[in-house]
Amino acid sequence: MTRTWEGPSARERQEVLRRTKTVAIVGASDNPSRASYFVATYLLSTSPYELWFVNPRATEILGRPVYPSLADVPGTPDVVDVFRRPSDLPEVLDETLAAGARTLWLQLGLWDEDVARRAQDAGLEVVMDRCLKIEHARFAGGLHWAGFDTGVITSRRTRGLPTA
User: Which residues pair with 25 in a beta bridge?
Assistant: First the structure.
Protein backbone atom coordinates (compact mmCIF):
# COMPACT_ATOMS: atom_id res chain seq x y z
CA MET A 1 0.00 0.00 0.00
CA THR A 2 1.37 3.39 -0.99
CA ARG A 3 1.58 6.00 1.71
CA THR A 4 0.28 9.39 0.61
CA TRP A 5 0.01 11.16 3.96
CA GLU A 6 3.03 13.19 5.01
CA GLY A 7 3.71 13.58 8.68
CA PRO A 8 5.48 16.36 10.53
CA SER A 9 9.17 16.97 9.91
CA ALA A 10 11.80 16.15 12.52
CA ARG A 11 11.85 19.80 13.58
CA GLU A 12 8.06 19.83 13.94
CA ARG A 13 8.12 16.62 16.00
CA GLN A 14 10.80 18.13 18.21
CA GLU A 15 8.59 21.18 18.75
CA VAL A 16 5.65 18.92 19.70
CA LEU A 17 7.81 17.21 22.30
CA ARG A 18 9.32 20.49 23.54
CA ARG A 19 5.96 22.03 24.41
CA THR A 20 4.39 18.82 25.75
CA LYS A 21 3.65 18.69 29.48
CA THR A 22 1.21 15.77 29.71
CA VAL A 23 1.05 12.45 27.87
CA ALA A 24 -1.74 9.88 28.01
CA ILE A 25 -0.55 6.41 27.01
CA VAL A 26 -3.55 4.59 25.55
CA GLY A 27 -3.01 0.85 25.63
CA ALA A 28 -0.52 1.07 28.48
CA SER A 29 0.47 -2.34 29.78
CA ASP A 30 1.77 -3.67 33.09
CA ASN A 31 3.69 -6.36 31.18
CA PRO A 32 7.41 -5.46 31.13
CA SER A 33 7.85 -7.17 27.76
CA ARG A 34 5.40 -4.80 26.05
CA ALA A 35 6.61 -1.71 24.22
CA SER A 36 4.19 0.56 26.09
CA TYR A 37 5.74 -0.51 29.41
CA PHE A 38 9.24 0.19 28.13
CA VAL A 39 8.21 3.60 26.76
CA ALA A 40 6.49 4.48 30.06
CA THR A 41 9.55 3.44 32.06
CA TYR A 42 11.79 5.54 29.85
CA LEU A 43 9.56 8.62 29.94
CA LEU A 44 9.12 8.42 33.71
CA SER A 45 12.87 8.30 34.24
CA THR A 46 14.06 10.80 31.64
CA SER A 47 11.33 13.29 30.78
CA PRO A 48 9.47 15.98 32.67
CA TYR A 49 6.14 14.78 31.25
CA GLU A 50 3.24 13.95 33.50
CA LEU A 51 2.06 10.52 32.35
CA TRP A 52 -1.43 9.10 32.54
CA PHE A 53 -1.93 5.43 31.72
CA VAL A 54 -5.11 4.30 29.99
CA ASN A 55 -6.19 0.65 29.99
CA PRO A 56 -9.63 -0.65 30.99
CA ARG A 57 -8.15 -3.92 32.31
CA ALA A 58 -5.37 -2.59 34.57
CA THR A 59 -5.54 -0.63 37.81
CA GLU A 60 -1.87 0.19 38.41
CA ILE A 61 1.25 0.39 36.25
CA LEU A 62 4.65 1.32 37.61
CA GLY A 63 3.00 2.38 40.87
CA ARG A 64 0.67 4.82 39.14
CA PRO A 65 -3.09 4.69 38.68
CA VAL A 66 -4.51 3.49 35.39
CA TYR A 67 -7.62 5.08 33.95
CA PRO A 68 -10.21 3.03 32.06
CA SER A 69 -10.53 5.61 29.25
CA LEU A 70 -9.25 8.98 28.10
CA ALA A 71 -12.43 10.51 29.52
CA ASP A 72 -11.24 9.48 32.99
CA VAL A 73 -7.72 10.99 33.02
CA PRO A 74 -7.33 13.88 35.50
CA GLY A 75 -6.64 16.57 32.90
CA THR A 76 -6.29 17.35 29.23
CA PRO A 77 -3.40 15.45 27.67
CA ASP A 78 -1.15 17.36 25.31
CA VAL A 79 -0.22 14.12 23.54
CA VAL A 80 -2.18 10.90 23.26
CA ASP A 81 0.37 8.14 22.60
CA VAL A 82 -1.39 5.09 21.17
CA PHE A 83 -0.48 1.41 21.57
CA ARG A 84 -3.60 -0.23 20.19
CA ARG A 85 -4.61 -2.40 17.27
CA PRO A 86 -5.07 -0.59 13.94
CA SER A 87 -8.77 -1.44 13.95
CA ASP A 88 -9.13 0.51 17.22
CA LEU A 89 -7.71 3.77 15.85
CA PRO A 90 -10.99 5.42 14.73
CA GLU A 91 -12.40 4.93 18.24
CA VAL A 92 -9.19 6.20 19.84
CA LEU A 93 -9.38 9.29 17.61
CA ASP A 94 -12.95 9.95 18.79
CA GLU A 95 -11.81 9.69 22.41
CA THR A 96 -8.77 11.90 21.71
CA LEU A 97 -10.98 14.60 20.18
CA ALA A 98 -13.39 14.41 23.12
CA ALA A 99 -10.48 14.70 25.56
CA GLY A 100 -9.27 17.91 23.91
CA ALA A 101 -5.72 16.70 23.21
CA ARG A 102 -3.47 18.60 20.80
CA THR A 103 -1.53 15.70 19.31
CA LEU A 104 -2.41 12.14 18.31
CA TRP A 105 0.78 10.06 18.31
CA LEU A 106 0.56 6.58 16.78
CA GLN A 107 3.41 4.29 17.72
CA LEU A 108 5.64 2.29 15.39
CA GLY A 109 3.59 0.09 13.10
CA LEU A 110 0.42 2.17 13.35
CA TRP A 111 -0.56 3.96 10.17
CA ASP A 112 -4.07 5.01 9.16
CA GLU A 113 -4.33 7.85 6.67
CA ASP A 114 -8.09 8.20 7.08
CA VAL A 115 -7.67 8.64 10.83
CA ALA A 116 -4.81 11.09 10.24
CA ARG A 117 -6.79 13.24 7.84
CA ARG A 118 -9.83 13.22 10.08
CA ALA A 119 -7.66 14.22 13.04
CA GLN A 120 -5.99 17.03 11.10
CA ASP A 121 -9.35 18.29 9.86
CA ALA A 122 -10.39 18.50 13.51
CA GLY A 123 -7.25 20.52 14.34
CA LEU A 124 -5.01 17.83 15.80
CA GLU A 125 -1.36 17.35 15.04
CA VAL A 126 -0.69 13.77 13.98
CA VAL A 127 2.44 11.66 14.20
CA MET A 128 2.26 8.11 12.84
CA ASP A 129 4.57 5.11 12.82
CA ARG A 130 7.02 6.76 15.21
CA CYS A 131 8.00 5.90 18.76
CA LEU A 132 7.66 8.70 21.30
CA LYS A 133 10.56 7.24 23.30
CA ILE A 134 12.86 7.06 20.30
CA GLU A 135 11.97 10.58 19.21
CA HIS A 136 12.42 11.97 22.72
CA ALA A 137 15.78 10.24 23.10
CA ARG A 138 16.80 11.38 19.64
CA PHE A 139 16.15 15.03 20.41
CA ALA A 140 17.47 14.80 23.95
CA GLY A 141 20.72 13.27 22.73
CA GLY A 142 20.05 9.87 24.27
CA LEU A 143 20.68 7.88 21.12
CA HIS A 144 24.15 9.14 20.34
CA TRP A 145 25.90 6.23 22.06
CA ALA A 146 24.00 3.67 20.04
CA GLY A 147 24.60 5.54 16.81
CA PHE A 148 20.95 5.55 15.76
CA ASP A 149 20.70 9.26 15.13
CA THR A 150 24.08 9.59 13.45
CA GLY A 151 23.59 7.10 10.68
CA VAL A 152 26.80 5.43 11.82
CA ILE A 153 26.79 2.32 13.92
CA THR A 154 30.13 1.70 15.54
CA SER A 155 31.55 0.37 18.74
CA ARG A 156 33.94 3.31 18.88
CA ARG A 157 32.78 6.20 20.99
CA THR A 158 33.35 9.67 19.69
CA ARG A 159 33.08 13.05 21.28
CA GLY A 160 30.53 15.24 19.54
CA LEU A 161 28.96 14.54 16.21
CA PRO A 162 30.84 12.61 13.54
CA THR A 163 32.20 14.70 10.72
CA ALA A 164 31.54 13.98 7.09
Answer: 53, 81
The pTM score is 0.86
pLDDT at 142: 63
Nearest of 58, 101, 96 to residue 76 by alpha carbon: 101
Instruction: Of 3, 5, 18, 4, give the one whose Cα is nearest residue 126.
Output: 5
Residue 51 lies inside a defined structural domain of this protein: yes
Q: Give residue-wise pLDDT tens across range 20-40.
A: 999 999 999 999 999 999 999
Would the pLDDT of 161 be above 60? no
Q: What CATH number has the domain bearing residue 134?
A: 3.40.50.720
- The neighbouring-strand residues paired with 24 are 52, 80
Average pLDDT over residues 140-146: 60
Identify the domain containing residue 98 by its residue range: 10-145
Is it the case that residue 143 has pLDDT exceeding 80?
no
Q: Is residue 132 part of a domain?
A: yes
